[in-house]
Design brief:
wza like fold, 14 helices, alpha+beta, five-stranded mixed β-sheet, Outer membrane lipoprotein wza fold like
Length: 584
């Protein structure tokens, strides 16, 4: 029994000693760099790449791995291993102690899976992580109708529109050298002016040429040529549709060696148009993939008042003499029950809009009412009396004979059209035309509506209860117990109103006539209508104006002209008399 214990103890010591020897050998092997270690370190030695702005988290299923992509490979277990590796120009990844692995052309998702599987065959235990640290950079070519054709640096996380924008920046070509004159050299004014003028001309010419190019750049028919071995695929890029829908296929991510061709836009021939209840109606560049619903998306989508049952396509025949109208069931297309309707070059889409009867209809009440302000009305149904009642009625100072309604809602364009139409059948002299313009402008700008407030609210004459319209203004003035006298009087100004007094009374209250007054041409200007009337044909009312005109100044030239004309007339009369007497 004792011998057995000794043997067991010796075996245990031997096992422990052997394990220590194996661990020491393994540690030496790990510390001793192998050829693969050296290659791995060479592959992983990369400079810190500048950060590339990302529009979102990289989609592993869409990102394509290529040369110069940088990966971080980590193995955690009994011994932690961490590598920073770069994909070689041949599209391989050299993993120390594991080997060389083909990853170029694979999606990021599949490349990570392949790397993990390869490492797992070497390291049976522990956790493995593979992370893309920095996307690569490469060259793509932009040609066609752009300001600056050439090669541009891009990355797999950038889209076609990025390099198209770069190719159209207003930058000076790299071959252009700007030479500034030395401070020690004096240029003559003539040469300086000529050079400045030449430089300005060149800048203007370049700017004009650039503007012509930018105006004609296609944004919906850009072609992307992508090589896959010996095969070259052509992808049509539609930036407007991408911005409208967000679908990546219309603006794909870039890959190494892509060639982008930007054609010239011919909106006069290659177009489709859309009008009506869409947010951005207008004419758009046509693409062979265009359809009704897609073009509606490009046009910013529907407005709130769209009539889904009133959408149609107007399609002209090739000779332009025939028209085909196609009704579109947009609801079925939106619900996926019907295929979208493809469009043809030159199609016009009309999107109907529902008639909206609701509106911000309102009128304005000013002056002597209890509650002046803005009052809502119903279209073509609210009466004047209703609004006055809502405003609390008149105050004790309200002057009903002078109250008025000014009609609103007449635009200057409508006013001009009305005047032009009224001229069409008129036969007016120059003087009549000037006077007609004056009267028409006053009528349109003031928009006075004939209403007798006294008859309506005192005599209860409902014929004066007009229907109000949006924008009408109701003005209730204060009682005016004054008469204003002005013109050729000694002291023009206001005179208190006295019922029954004539105009001479008010003129005398102002000191009488001035020396140059034309007392026989005094006019009464009615306060409400602004009508000029002779005193004998009207009764002076509160608020009226009395105008005393001035005698016209007639100098020597006036009398000379009168005498010369009289002499001419006299000579004609004398001549006629002599002829009559001679041949009698």
């Amino acid at each position: 029994m004792r011998i057995m214990k000794i043997i067991t103890f010796m075996i245990a010591c031997l096992i422990v000693f052997r394990s220590c020897m194996l661990y020491a050998q393994e540690k030496k092997e790990v510390e001793r760099p192998s050829v693969l270690d050296i290659l791995g370190k060479m592959s992983g030695v990369t400079a810190e790449a500048p950060a590339i702005p990302l529009e979102n988290v990289i989609d592993q299923a869409k990102y394509i791995v290529g040369p110069s992509d940088i990966f971080a490979v980590n193995v955690w277990g009994f011994q932690n291993v961490s590598y920073r590796l770069s994909v070689t120009p041949e599209g391989t990844l050299i993993i120390p102690t594991v080997g060389e692995l083909k990853v170029g052309g694979l999606t990021l998702e599949r490349a990570r899976s392949e790397i993990v599987n390869a490492i797992r065959r070497k390291y049976l235990l522990g956790d493995i992580s593979v992370t893309l640290l920095s996307p690569r950079r490469f060259l793509v070519t932009v040609t066609g109708n752009v300001l600056n054709s050439g090669s541009y640096i891009a990355s797999p996380v950038e889209r076609v529109d990025k390099v198209v924008i770069e190719a159209n920046r207003m930058t000076m070509p790299s071959s252009t050298v700007i030479v500034e004159p030395s401070p020690m050299v004096t240029l003559t004014p003539t040469f300086t002016q000529q050079r400045t003028a030449l430089e300005q001309f060149q800048k203007n010419t370049e700017r004009n040429q650039a503007s012509q190019i930018l105006e004609n750049i296609s944004s919906r028919n850009i072609l992307l040529y992508r090589r896959h071995g010996t095969r070259v695929d052509t992808i049509r890029v539609d930036l407007l549709k991408y911005y409208a829908t967000g679908e990546c296929k219309y603006n794909p991510f870039l890959l190494d060696g892509d060639v982008i061709f930007v054609p010239r836009k011919d909106i006069g021939k290659n177009f489709v148009s859309i009008y009506g209840a869409v947010n951005q109606p207008g004419i758009y560049e046509y693409t062979p993939e265009d359809s009704v619903y897609n073009l509606i998306k490009v046009a910013g989508g529907f407005m709130d008042l769209v009539d889904y049952d009133n959408i149609r396509i107007s399609r002209l025949s090739d000779d332009g003499n025939g028209e085909q109208n196609i009704t579109v069931n947009i609801r079925a297309i939106m619900e996926g029950k019907q295929k979208d309707v493809p469009l043809q070059r030159g199609d016009r889409i009309f999107v109907g809009e529902k008639v909206q009867q609701r509106g911000d209809y309102k009128v304005y009440v000013q002056g002597e009412v209890l509650h002046p302000g803005i009052y809502p009305i119903t279209k073509e149904s609210t009466k004047l009396s209703e609004v006055i009642r809502k405003a609390g009625g008149f105050t004790e100072y309200a002057f009903l004979p002078g109250s008025q309604v000014i009609r609103g809602g007449i635009s200057q364009t409508d006013a001009n059209i009305e005047k032009l139409l009224s001229y069409r059948l008129a036969n007016l002299s120059i003087e009549d035309t000037a006077y007609y313009n004056l009267e028409t402008n006053i009528r349109i700008l003031r928009g006075l509506f004939t209403v007798d407030f006294k008859r309506l609210f005192v005599d209860a004459d409902t014929s004066q209860d007009i229907t109000l319209r949006d924008g009408d203004m109701i003005i209730i003035p204060s009682v005016r117990q004054m008469i204003y006298v002005y013109g050729q009087v000694v002291n023009p100004g206001y005179v208190p109103y006295v019922k029954g007094k004539d105009y001479e009374y008010y003129i005398q209250r102002c000191g009488g006539y001035g020396e140059e007054a034309r007392s026989g041409d005094v006019k009464i200007v009615k306060w409400k209508t602004q009508q000029w009337m002779s005193p004998e044909y009207t009764e002076i009312e509160p608020g009226d104006y009395i105008w005393v005109p001035k005698k016209p100044e007639r100098g020597l030239q006036f009398y000379t002209t009168v005498l010369s004309q009289a002499a001419s007339v006299a000579s004609v009369i004398i001549g006629i008399t002599i002829l009559v007497l001679r041949y009698r």
